């Protein structure tokens, strides 16, 4: 079911979060294949791109002064420092898509989700979690993008994030990708 402009002319804002390695990016990617009319908000970040990431697709990679300028002008719906890098959600494209009656997905960490909920209480928050912490460990190891120190930091953060999942409107366990995507589709169609 596509977003309808008859819904008071406004789309809905969905915020997807979960621990690093929970598979939220993969769930979002599959969801967008099934519902291409949904707008994916592309966050800005000051961190370097990973090998497979493309500027403007996965993130928009900018300098720290550019980021701080956007933040200071109010051009970000939310911003946070995570693992020593800055991340933020550009306000203009999200506002334009919502005003056009389109649903928007933001893939954010918990800090970002809390900030969005304060700025836009109508936002729908969805927490993607792995079936177990052992599974999360395995996913992070197999991803091969973190140093052992980074992996330890992400595991510690995952435990802390799991404790805060109660602030979300929906929790989706990503045990089987197809089931997680189906659950996300049910949430979007409500």
Give the count of structural domains. Answer: 1
Please provide the ordered H/E string of secondary-structure elements.
EHEEEHEEHEHEHHEH
Strand order of the largest sheet: 2-7-1-8-9
> What is the third-level CATH name, the topology?
Rossmann fold
Low-confidence blocks of residues: 1-8
CATH domain class: Alpha Beta
Number of strands: 9
Please compute the radius of gyration using only Cα atoms. 16 Å
**Helix content estimate:** 40-55%
CATH superfamily: P-loop containing nucleotide triphosphate hydrolases
Q: What fraction of residues sit in β-strands?
A: 15-25%
Shape: globular
End-to-end CA span: 10 Å
**Main beta sheet strand tally, sense and closure:** 5 strands, parallel
Mean pLDDT reading:
89
């Amino acid at each position: 079911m596509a977003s309808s402009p008859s819904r008071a002319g406004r789309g809905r804002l969905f915020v997807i979060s979960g621990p690093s390695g929970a598979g939220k990016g993969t769930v979002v990617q599959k969801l967008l294949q099934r519902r291409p009319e949904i707008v994916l908000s592309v966050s800005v970040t000051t961190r370097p791109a990973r090998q497979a990431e493309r500027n403007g697709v996965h993130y928009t990679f900018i300098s720290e002064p550019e980021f701080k300028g956007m933040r200071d002008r109010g051009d970000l719906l939310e911003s946070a420092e995570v693992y020593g890098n800055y991340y933020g959600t550009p306000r203009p494209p999200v506002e334009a898509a919502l005003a056009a009656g389109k649903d928007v997905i933001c893939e954010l960490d918990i800090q970002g989700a809390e900030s969005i909920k304060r700025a836009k209480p109508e936002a729908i928050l969805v927490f993607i979690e792995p079936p177990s912490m052992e599974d999360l460990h395995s996913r992070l190891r197999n991803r091969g993008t973190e140093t052992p120190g980074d992996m330890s930091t992400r595991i510690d953060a995952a435990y802390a994030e799991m404790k805060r999942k109660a602030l979300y409107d929906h929790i989706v366990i990503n045990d089987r990708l197809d089931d997680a995507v189906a659950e996300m589709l049910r949430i979007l169609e409500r």
